[in-house]
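Help needed: design a sequence for this.
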C-alpha cells in the first residue's frame, strides 16, 4: 500500500503603520494622490513584498479616504500570486476598531487590490494606526532565507580574527578565544562599558571569563561581530542560545535576527520553547508568530501530544491561545494577529 501526506505552508507577513496628523493629508493632498507604507515581507520569502496605500482624497465626487494593498516583487510580469489579507484600524490602546477582511485576490507585480473605505475612530492629536496581515502560499516561488549560508572566504576582518592579528583581549570559556576590544565595543554596549571602566579587572587584564554559554555558541556571536553574517546551520542549531547570549550583551541586531529566525521556523516540536522564549523575553513578534501557528494548525495541533504537554506546563498561555482564537473564530472564521 502506498501512502502520502501533503501539507501546505502558508506564509504570513504583517505591518503596523502609524500616521500622525492624518487630517493634514486629507486637507492638502490632491485627488488621486496616495500615501505609501514601508514594504513588508515574510523572512522565508523576502522577494515577495507588500505595501499599503492610503488615498486621503479619492475624487471630488467621493470624499472618503480609501486604503488598498499592493504586491511588489514578482519580477516576471506574467507571474501571479493569490493572497488573502486582513486590515484593521487600531485605537490608542492597540485594540482593533474597524475590520476589512479581503477576499482571495490574485496579485501581479504592482497590481493593487480593491480599495476600502478607511474608517477610524481617533481622538484629536492622536495618530491613525493601521494594521495589516497578508497570507499566501508560495506556489512556484523559490523560498529564500534572509540568513546567509556563509561558505565563501571571510572578509578581511574575519581573517584578522581567525589569525589572531594584534588582538588585545581574550575570552576564557573552556578554551581561549582572542579578540579585539574595538570590534566588541562596536556591537555590544556591555563590552563597551566594560572596557571603558579602567577599574574593572576585565579592562585591566583584557581577560573575560564566560560561564553561561558554550564555546561554540559564543564563537558564533564573535564571528558575527567580525563578518556581519551567520551560517544558516548555526541558526538551526543555536538560535535560542544565541538570542540568550545576545540579550545578555545587548547585541540588538543579533537579537532581531534570532527572533526573526525563531518566528519563521515554528513547528509542533519547538512550539513550547518558542512560546516560553516569547514570554521570558517579551518578544512580541515571536509571540504573534506562535499565535499564528496555533491558529493555522489548531484543528490538528490540539490533538497532539505536544499540545497536551504544553497546556499542562503553560496553563495561562494555553488559555490565551484558546480564548483569542475562539473569540475571533466565532466572528471571522479564525484568528489573524
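Sure. Designed sequence:
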Amino acid at each position: 500500500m502506498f501512502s502520502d501526506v501533503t501539507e501546505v505552508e502558508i506564509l504570513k507577513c504583517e505591518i503596523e503603520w502609524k500616521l500622525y496628523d492624518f487630517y493634514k493629508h486629507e486637507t492638502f493632498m490632491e485627488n488621486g494622490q496616495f500615501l505609501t507604507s514601508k514594504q513588508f515581507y515574510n523572512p522565508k520569502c523576502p522577494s515577495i513584498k507588500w505595501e499599503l496605500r492610503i488615498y486621503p482624497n479619492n475624487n471630488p465626487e467621493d470624499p472618503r479616504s480609501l486604503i488598498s494593498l499592493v504586491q511588489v516583487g514578482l519580477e516576471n510580469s506574467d507571474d501571479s500570486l493569490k493572497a488573502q489579507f486582513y486590515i484593521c484600524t487600531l485605537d490608542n490602546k492597540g485594540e482593533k476598531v474597524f475590520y476589512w477582511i479581503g477576499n482571495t485576490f490574485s496579485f501581479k507585480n504592482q497590481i493593487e487590490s480593491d480599495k476600502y473605505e478607511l474608517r477610524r475612530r481617533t481622538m484629536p492629536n492622536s495618530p491613525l494606526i493601521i494594521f495589516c496581515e497578508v497570507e499566501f502560499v508560495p506556489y512556484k516561488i523559490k523560498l529564500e532565507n534572509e540568513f546567509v549560508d556563509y561558505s565563501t572566504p571571510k572578509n578581511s576582518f574575519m581573517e584578522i580574527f581567525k589569525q589572531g592579528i594584534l588582538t588585545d583581549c581574550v575570552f576564557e570559556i573552556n578554551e581561549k578565544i582572542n579578540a579585539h576590544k574595538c570590534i566588541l565595543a562596536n556591537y555590544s554596549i556591555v563590552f563597551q562599558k566594560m572596557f571603558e571602566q579602567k577599574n574593572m579587572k576585565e579592562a585591566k587584564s583584557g581577560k573575560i571569563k564566560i560561564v553561561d554559554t558554550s564555546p561554540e555558541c559564543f564563537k558564533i556571536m564573535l564571528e558575527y561581530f567580525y563578518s556581519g553574517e551567520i551560517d544558516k546551520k548555526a541558526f538551526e542549531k543555536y538560535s535560542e542560545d544565541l538570542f540568550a547570549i545576545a540579550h545578555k550583551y545587548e547585541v540588538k541586531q543579533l537579537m532581531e535576527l534570532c527572533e526573526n529566525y525563531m518566528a519563521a521556523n515554528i513547528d509542533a516540536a519547538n512550539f513550547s520553547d518558542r512560546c516560553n522564549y516569547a514570554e521570558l523575553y517579551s518578544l512580541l513578534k515571536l509571540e504573534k508568530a506562535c499565535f499564528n501557528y496555533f491558529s493555522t494548525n489548531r484543528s490538528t495541533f490540539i490533538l497532539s501530544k505536544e499540545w497536551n504537554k504544553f497546556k499542562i506546563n503553560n496553563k495561562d498561555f494555553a488559555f490565551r491561545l484558546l480564548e483569542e482564537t475562539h473569540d475571533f473564530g466565532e466572528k471571522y472564521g479564525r484568528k489573524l494577529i
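The chain has three domains: 11-136, 173-265, 266-324.
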